[in-house]
Amino acid sequence: MGVSKSTMKTNKLVEEICAYTSYTEDQVRVWLKAFPRRGLNFDEFEAAYYTYFNHGQKSNIIDYIFRAFDADSDGTISCTEFFVFFHIVCEGTLEERLELAFRLYDANQDGEVSYQELLHILTVSVLDLSMLCIKQMSLNSKE
Fold first, then answer.
1. 3-state per-residue secondary structure call for the chain
2. 88 touches 97 (CB < 8 A)
3. pLDDT truncated to tens, each residue of the chain (143 aa)?
4. What residue spans define the domains of the chain?
5. Cβ neighbours of residue 20 under 8 Å, at least 6 residues apart?
6. Chain centroid to CA 131: how far?
7. Integer Cα distance of 68 and 63 in angstroms
8. Which of 43, 63, 117, 132 has a CA 20 to 30 Å removed from the CA of 126?
């Protein structure tokens, strides 16, 4: 007998994720069961984001968030990219979080955040926040 190729790939993936994060092997193995092995494309990410994180509220910043997750810019968020992103957001150092924020703001990925890029992301962020506040006020008035 021996270890299957699938098990070897999973073990390697678990080791890789653990090397970049503070997650335990057991945590990663549990979470991997719910994550598609091929990764998430933009449409899948957008659907999951709206369902689980934004309570169905459309967002103008989703493109920025996807691009920040997709560190290698291949159009897919891999398992490793996904776990590393969440590790940085939840437990990363200040420097790691700043680098992530920079990736969010650097829309054209030229290594610089221009005035236009900064203005655009701040504008869409304020619009998203405004829409969320309006929705919340509407829900509160129905109670």
1. CCCCHHHHHHHHHHHHHHHHCCCCHHHHHHHHCCCCCCCECHHHHHHHHHHHHCCCCCCCCHHHHHHHHCCCCCCCECHHHHHHHHHHHHHCCHHHHHHHHHHHHCCCCCCCCCHHHHHHHHHHHHHHHHHHHHHHHHHHHHC
2. yes
3. 455 666 777 888 889 888 988 888 998 888 888 777 778 899 988 888 777 766 666 677 788 888 888 988 899 998 888 888 888 888 889 999 998 888 888 888 889 989 998 888 888 777 666 665 666 566 666 66
4. 37-142
5. 80, 83, 84, 87
6. 21
7. 9
8. 43
**One-letter amino acid of 55:** H
Which distant-in-sequence residues (6+ apart) come within 8 Å of 7 by Cβ? none
Q: Which residue has the tokens 């494309």?
A: 41
CATH superfamily ID and name for 37-142: EF-hand (1.10.238.10)
